[in-house]
Amino acid sequence: MKVYKFDKPGLEAWIKKWSETAPVFYPAPDASENCGIHPGWGKMTEVVLPQSSGPAKSSLKTFYFPQPEVLATSSLKKNDDDGLLLTEPAPVVEKQVVFGVRPCDGRSVELNNLPYAEEKLFQQNRERTVLVGFSCSEPKSTCFCQATGGSPYGIDGLDILISRQDDHFLAEIITDKGAKLAENGLIDAGSEEIAILEKLRRENAGNNDKGEKLKEKDLSSLYNASFWNRVSDSCLNCGACTFLCPTCYCFDIQDEVLHGRGQRIRYWDSCMFPLYTLHTTGHNPRGLKVQRVRNRFMHKLKNFPDRFGPLSCVGCGRCVVECPVNIDIREVMDDLLAVE
Amino acid sequence: MTDKTWEPKIIAFLCTWCSYAGADLAGVSRFQYPPNIRIVKVPCSGRISPNLILNALRTGADGVLVSGCHPGDCHYISGNYFARRRFALFENLLEFIGIEPDRVNFSWVSASEGEQFAEIVKDVTARVKELGPATHLVKKFNEAA
Amino acid sequence: MATINSKISEEIRALAGKLLEEKKIAAFLGYCQGSLPMTARPFVARTPEDTDKLIWNSFCVLNLANYLPELLKSLEPPRGPRDPAPEGPLPKVAILATGCWSRNIVIQIQENQVDRDRVVICGVGSRGMVAQAKVKELFDGREILEVIEEDHKLLVSGNGFNEEINRWNVVRDNCLTCIHPDPVIFDIRIGDEAGQRKNDNRFAEVEKIDNKSTAERSRWFTDEFASCIRCYACRNACPLCYCPTCFVDDAKPQWVGKSIDQVDTSIFHILRAYHCAGRCTDCGSCESVCPMGINMRILTKKLTSDVLNLYGSEAGMALDAPLPLTTYRQDDPQNFIITEQAADKEGE
Question: Per the confidence metrics, is the pTM higher than 0.90?
Fold first, then answer.
């Protein structure tokens, strides 16, 4: 792995150069810098280095599951070329760079890749997106990436990771995709500087103890635990947690018809909504709020790990901060661990 | 408007008892009015939900005309009174968020006012023409996608 | 030192404990301490032991009336849609209510969502709730780790700072312009009366937008709602939104597209606000819960101002006053009707 060293103007000039060949997105501190289809992310014109810690307001998944995402189009007119035929749109291949990604968000891409390993559009977006991470020197009080197996210096899912060290920056080139952004004339970092970084990484390594413990627990006793009622008493059943969560990947599909053309679009859905599980018969297997709340946490902390290994949570703390009624997944995790 | 050939599409929601009958009378009496309106017959102006008006704009109407019986003449006694409160608030809200006031129009037309109906359609068509094609709240498919 | 809120908290705990002990109610709907600074979590106390957790402070931003219809329903014995209503009195719920919350309960009673006989309304005079976002903005970028509340100030501390701020400066906008902080209906009063609050122009924020040109307003509206992610927190936090199926969830007809398309998001917000016309009490829940910080409350505030100007009524002020859109007067203003405009001109 190559590691390069920059001073601040050098780093900014390097980042600026990317925007000549591909759009560079960054976490927009202000809503007015929003770039439309990716709320919370702006298209870079001036280089803005992220603050020392904490994830962006909006998660990275908008680049992997943009909404709306067109799955197919068709014409309602019989004589058109695509008359009454569902036609897949041409694959989107344009490169895009996302800058200022926190290691937790980077890891979310790896986690989502587990269930989406064979999903065409997700893979297509993964292929065309270069993730440039920024390590967290001082995690926030709501960050708990280490408890979920991540690390503030983690490289999972990222193509480049930039770390601040005193008055300079180190950029680790992790993948080939990342290497393409670092082609010419950069200054190698000294071995001492790399050693400091490696030490920080070792000291701040994640552990998945809680996840492993939960895996050993009996599914039905967790399912029937009494604390779910207490959690659901305060829940509003809105989608704030699921839509901000980087590892919530559920979607719904709808056909939209306009002026003789049809579009099949995919957009985010949330297991918090009653409509999510509503059958056409009218039966709803998760008709009660408590069932939906339980499902969300059980999926993240038990069902997903049972099937794929890691927790489906990267500890970014977005849901903890933004939940309108302050439902705290860290408390729920402890509640689950306390179940006998 | 630069494009002189452009003709607006206007959706007219007419109550079946008064305004629709008024439009019918305009036809029978051969009062001419612009062919820009597409009439949707509804049982009563009280049936018009803002959903319908927004849906008309969303799917490409350049203007909307809602018409019911004169106050006091409602076939269902009070439907248009309730509608009037609803429309007043809705019209103000649309204006508040930057929709031109002339896009969405409300009128009272009785079954005997065929000539007035033709005048209203002329008037509304002229107003919408003046504004040009609707640009807000018009759903478009993303061309790039 | 006992603050006003700590005294109210004490009273709430004592009252809730007593009501549950005497089995007068099945549940007490209040707030408990949240896990982060400046948060309070809506909480249902079902046993006298639970009541120890109840608190009251300036961060109780969510309107508790929102939970009331569903909580009442959940306490009824289960029955099918065609089964007759159970005989005998049903379990009761006690709920904390400030000015706006109590007005929302009035509306819920008027709209037959809540049975007056099944609620024990515990009125609390509101001193204005604090907007978390305003405090965070004051400490731009610095993480707040603890906030201690006193009667008129907040002691805010974090890594390497410890500052005192004036509470009134960070009170939510809707509370700043509120003139009914005291509950309009209650069975038991907790704490002191809030008294009337004076405000010269409670609709100043609406007028600010009103004074813009049409094009400016349109730009403002598009920008304001651009970051909406359609999580529906605003809808779900609203005590007026209790429809079993929301219009956005209808698939046929599809009133509004479900993705974050700008037009669809706009239509969602227009209709959401419009459905609250003449019913909104400006409790500010929608704005307080929005994870993207959108000020959607301005739309309902505009409607509130219009309802007041045109029909002279305010939502939920009394049980026997009909909601403005469920009634009419023969001489309601109608100068927006184009045929009337023409008639007016002729008359001149």
Answer: yes
